[in-house]
Amino acid sequence: MKPSKAGLSCPARMMVAAVVAAILAGCQPPREIKSPVGGAEIQKLPRAGWRTFRNISQVLCMVRDGNTLWLGTRGGGLVRYSIRTGQYVVYSQSEGLVHNTVNDIVIDRSGALWLATPVGVGVYDRQKWQSFNTANGLPSNFIRSMAVDSSGARWCGTALGIARFDGASWTAFQTGRNWKTNDILSMASDARGLWVGSREGIGQFEAGKWRLLTREDGVIGNEIRDIKVDEDGSIWAGTDEGVSRYDGMVWTSFPLPPRFSGLPVNAVEVDSSRRLWAGTAQGLASFDGSEWKYFTTVSGLPNDEVLSLLTDREGLLWVGTRGGLVSFNGERFDPVHLESPLPHNTVRAIAAVPGREVVYCGTDQGVMTFMSGRWSMVTAAQGLPSEDVSSVDVDPAGHVWLGTPEGAVEMGETEWVLRKTGQGWANNDVHCVFVDFSGKIWAGTSDGLNMYADGRWKTYRKADGLISDSVLAIAQDKKGQLWVGTDRGVSQYDGVKWISYTPADGLPDQTVRAIACDPAGRIWFGTQGGGVARFDGTNWTSFTRRDGIGADYITGIVIDPDSNVWVSTWGGGVAMYDNARWTSYSAPQGIASNYVYGLAVDYKGRKWFGTDSGVSVLAESRPSPRPAVPAAAPQRSAPPKEAAPKPAVKPGKSPVKAPESAAPKAAPAPVPATPPPVPATPAAPPPVPPAPPLPSAPAGGK
Questions:
Q1: DSSP strand E in 46-182: where?
Q2: The pTM is what?
Q3: Whose CA, among 73, 206, 498, 618, lies 20 to 30 Å from 89?
């Protein structure tokens, strides 16, 4: 964080939930779109065939630059807001932003913006974009905070220490010897040096030496989520137990009032009248030196969860919340109108209802539904048993099935039903759900595969022939055989016996996170790091980045009505295979983000992509892509002839007999289940951020 007189603020929350914001991804020329509630957006025209729904109302950080507010959002990009006109411009990965989540912002002496993101440091000099990551000398790509010191040097706080940029190169510094962690949550600078917030206390870094200050030194709490320097040079620290002020000699603590007691302070600010402001997950508190006052949604806040605070020279307090941005003039809160219909940005699973214009999206805050051109959200408040949704599928009766860490959830006509341990389940931690041709429900968990039919559940594990108990993906081929992806390979089940395949048989990687079956009977597998594999029953063929896929970490696969294969990746956007070559689409081509959790095809053939930065829809079958790269082995006939096929299934593989079970009936190929949230990808350029699930209230950080 930076001195309040410079107009900078940012919370110490790492991940937050969302309410509202839909904007169209764009290309030039710019045009103005008037908001129905009075605001206006200078927005770019959508790229041909693409439409993006994105939330820009989760304001993680702010800095004022004259009559402009720069807003860093969670998944919505960087917003330039005109205080005078109410117009705004959104910058995303499509325009050159390194990542759509901006944790912190500072402006250096040249006027360039320096941005803390989950994949490195972004720089915008008002004309061009630049980025820095570990390849440039940063200790980590996950950046939570930025600062500019008195000499003009730029600093960033990362998950593995701090780094300084002198205009030519980065120099990394780890914390002092008596520190147990290098995880930096917040930063600010003054004439005395750099102030750094961590989970162990507040550190001062001066002339290459560290000094750590903790509760024993008078700080009210050790987890420092926000730091500000006021006009008098005092240091203000928002902690997990209240606010502390350092005047250069002693620390003075300000415990929060009883109503907010025990809540961490996400953001701290001191206005021109010396009033202290503290933002928490349950509202805003102010202290005038004698008494505390409370502000919540009843007072005019758009949401009780306060994420960032900023005071400016005109006496306004700007409050960034989970539900939007407001300004406070001392008497009332005035909303900033950022047009936003999308409830949440982090879309971890997506499914289209056959024959209807309805799309369901699983998030870490509930289920979003797109119906009749509008988005809506179902949470625990509407009866959802678990809001942490990692998988979605729809059964023949139109019931929606959700995979959650607490079990599988069925949405019936009037209520939600949670299926969990004690009802025939192997484990409550459901990675994926899948509805087969006959209407059986399959749920992959971390401790086996559950099957629901005729009102009863049955569990399959390694002892029954499954290659691993950790099930990540499920699909069914046109013969009715089930294919199950795990962390140790893939298993095929014909209703009687199991046959398993591993890298020794031709899989490029043992962790299989996505499966789809094409009309020709070939099975497609998406792996965690090995790209895509195709199996025709005899031969294996692999496709990787070298063949034109954007990344080798595959999160989803679907087959469209034209038999094109679509894959989503973590870090490389999406790619399409037309049986001859791969064509890759990334943020510059129109998708919301290169970090894609999954995808679906609706009954009109439109492709829906769930990303870490909203939902993108592709209406055309062939938009303007990146230059296509011919596949290593083009397939134009069936059976395909491979130029260099991977080894076939090893002879002598003995099937494993399983308990008796009726084989599913054959039917048209379904859309495969969306995979569960993916973990951090291996380090590789470009840097890849960790794939959540994102906690709604993390222990510090942004």
A1: 50-53, 59-65, 68-73, 78-82, 87-91, 104-107, 113-117, 120-124, 129-132, 143-148, 154-158, 161-165, 170-173
A2: 0.79
A3: 618
